[in-house]
Amino acid sequence: MLAISDQFQNYWRKRLRPRLKPLPYLLILPTVYFVYLFTILPTFKVLRDSQIYFHPNLPQRVIMTDLKLPGIDPAQRSMRGPHDVGWAYFRAMADPDSLVGNEFWQVMRNTALYVVVTVPTSMLLAFLFATLVNRKLRGIGWARIAFFYPTMLPMVSAATIWNFFFTPDYGLWNSALRLFGYSGAENWIINPDLGLWALVIVAVWKNAGYYMIFYLAGLQTLPEDVYEAAALDGANWFVQLFRITLPLLKRTTLFVSVIAIIGAFQTIDHALVLTYELVTGEADLLLYAIYEQRFMQQNYGLANAMTVVMVTILLGLTLLNFILTERDHD
Amino acid sequence: MRMRLLLVVVLLMAAFGTTLTSAQEPVVVEIYFPIAVDSPITAILDEYSAAYEAENAGVDIVFSFEGGYTDVKNKLLTTMEGGGDLPALAIMLATDIYDLRNAEAIVPLDVYASEEYLADFFPTWLSNSYYDYDLDGTPELYGIPFQRSTVLLYTNLTLLEENGLTMPTNWEELATVAQALTTTDRWGILLPNSWPYWVFQPFAIGAGQNIVTESDTDVFFNTPEVVAGLQYWMDLFQTYQATPAGVQSNWGDAPGLFADGKAAMIIHSTGSLPSILGKAVFEVGVSGIPGKDGGYHTVTGGGNLYMVAGTDEATAEAAWKFVEWLTSPAQAVDWSIRTGYITTRISGLELDTWTAYIAENPQAADAAATIDVAGREFSVQSLAAVRDILHAHVFDVLNGVATPEDAMAAAQTEADEALSMFKTE
Questions:
Q1: Most buried of A251, A291, A327, B190, CB within 10 angstroms?
Q2: Is B384–A58 a contact, with Cβ atoms under 8 angstroms apart?
Q3: Right CATH number for B150-300+376-422 from 3.80.30.30, 3.40.190.10, 2.60.120.200, 3.40.50.11890?
Q4: pLDDT at B6 over 70
Q5: Size of interface A-B (CB pairs under 8 A)
Q6: ipTM
Q7: What is the pLDDT of residues A49-66, one digit of tens each?
């Protein structure tokens, strides 16, 4: 007994105590606390709240209702809530034939299309801008400013400017399109066929300059001797681009694509300025739909359930980024 | 060194603490205020609070500017949910009354408002002020009319005269006048309809049926009159080519286009009157919207004063006294002259300041005259959902994918379904 205790004391004094230094843990404690308070706690709260029906814009009246949710039996309930409904919102969202599911899948299709179009387009433009402004030409500084300028604007200002550009008849956008023979619809904003494209155009215009900065930084770190050697071997511009520049910029491309995709999910400002009047849903993106349900329709449960979906998607993307970049290190 | 710093901090805190407690604490009345028109609102309100505080010692009026109407409502509701400090008063849309009361964000004002006080308000401004929340048969008063507007027809009278035309008095004349004034670089009439219900209501009323009554659970979307109103919108561009086709997202541009002569007539809010009169170099006519068979029609709009739930008694008393002052005939007229909103008080129209003002600006009197023909603005339970239903179907019609009859029939069915839960008593 005594021997064990002695042995442990010995072990503690020699091995464990020196390792368990309290200071580092104390120092990260505030950070851990704030991460818990502002990230972990809200995540779990939103998961819990996604199972609660709550409509504060409805009166506190008891009626016979199934809350219009699948799997809920009709009963005498307050139409306002709160009621615990388990996974009913997720069941409704999973069923594309239900009213909620129909809206949700339209939002998901819109969001997917928006991401699939804005991300590659703005990255391609960013790369082209970067290769252009990376040249040593006179006045290239002005070109850099011109390409980067949209990035410095807040999204709300950018959307307001574009609201003016999109004006039917005399608006800049329609005037420019007419020069190229366009004769289609001129109202780009409150139009079921064009509303989402208006958001795409604004997002590409706004983001390309930002991603250009990363490509420019990447381009400027590339070793010049490689290009000199390639030129001596007779490699033309295209070969240099596809065999040297792009492979060397792989990490930049990976990084930019991840922040571009995450950014595409997180943008809402242009929709609030441009397409909020288009209530038929053709231009609704996921984050906008969450805002609309939470603040306009006051459907808290559905807004929280959609937030869970959004957090899951973003978490998945972050993990993917982590895995891909880690693998790249090896 | 460290001790000395500590001492300084302690002394400072003590000094700050005593100044806070020793002074006679004024009653603070905070008011959430939306900025919705192009006038120097903050400067005017600073003047008002200074004037009121000078007359009433011990009251501190604090205006808190939160953005637009939506921002004020969202800020109030989220502050309430988060348990933050709430204002005593807020100016929010008259049509938000059901949402706000249901959310337990506002309290009834019947205990404060005397009958003679209310009798001096134009009754139409009070059409979205009452709500029978407890279903006892007697509606309670929630909203006090403050910054109120109507939908107007603005007409370029100079252009009319040059073309030998007279002011249109019914739909037929409105369409033919608009058609006659349409040229390659000018529209006869502009109807901003990307947020359509408000601009549409005068046309429904003008055909003989508002889309709402006094009820908070009934809408009238598919009556022949309402369908006729929507058909008339279609006729304006399909038959007469007097307005651009389809949905027009030009609410912000229309007043400027009108003032620049790019449109002979526009349908817009009274709130645009000061900016239009300031810019236009021609004679501007202001009226309600001609009805199908004559008469002029419009609808109310704008914001009411609400008292926020949870305000303590002393603050509520002080807040109500300020509401009475702010809505007094003299203040209501001053506010109207300086912002373009229409005065809310009947006796205000007899004040010298008002008569002197309309002698200089006859259009302001014409705008105020539309109060007499203004219908109740669209507001029902679950307003956001029901309004979205109406807008979606109106867009279908304007985009040419549905006829007015079919679209309005579908809108009625969907709206009835959305409102059915309020009728299962």
A1: B190
A2: no
A3: 3.40.190.10
A4: no
A5: 75
A6: 0.88
A7: 999 999 999 999 999 999
